Amino acid sequence: MLDRTPYIPFGEGPKLPPDLITALRHAEPDVPRLGADDRVLAMLSARRRARRRGWLFTAGPLAAAAGLALACGVWWATQKTQRPVDIVDAFALALQLRDATEPVRNPSTGRLLTTADVDALARQAVRIGGGA
Amino acid sequence: MRKLSRALLCLLLIGVALSWMPQTHARLVQAADAVRFEIVDVFASSAQPLAAYQFELRAESGDARIVGVEGGEHAAFQTAPYYDPAALRTGRIIIGAFSTANDLPPANARTRVARVHLEVHGGRPIYTAVRLAGATHGAVRTDVQFSTQSRPTP
Question: Is the pTM of this model over 0.80?
Fold first, then answer.
């Protein structure tokens, strides 16, 4: 006949006095915690971890989807407000170059603009599948 | 007897050749008629003197291929306008030009701004010019009406 330790449901088994548990912990901190209180602590921390992981799995994809939607919205808004280049833009630049008293520069790059830029702009305007 | 049969055979061959030749000639004439060239003049008019224009020309029906683009009649637009060379050999082109000169086509005057040469196969196409942009002095945008007029190349 085997000598088996009977299963003791949680909360019904014998408990060590709290001061003894504290004393044991302080005496041998590396000893694995096997007491009933420690099981509860482990269970609680596991639940907390699981809850945290659950939030991560729920909130993560949601945040990613929201970010993607925001990026798409910004891109769409810029595309909608951006007017394609047309011949009038090239004409305006040609007039600006003609009437300028000092060198005209590209405001974003600082590069000097010439009649070649007017030509390039006009060609872009009439491009099939681009421009206007 | 043999000589007679040979003569008859020769006559038969000559007859067949003579009867085939006019058909071939007719077919060649028909093929030449099927491909022809047309000129499309594009006219513009606006409420302000015209300094810049841009339009899209399309052959709405039929098989028309653009083969060349010329400037207009007014001095301000006589040089060849801007267009995409990739549009040649197709039925759709975007044409644009501007002039910084002071002498511009007057307001409310119908002036030819471009001439397009096309190679046409089959039936007569319908051409439409769609307005894309227009401007007057100082690059001030203005409304421009475009119209087309086509005729066979003389």
Answer: no
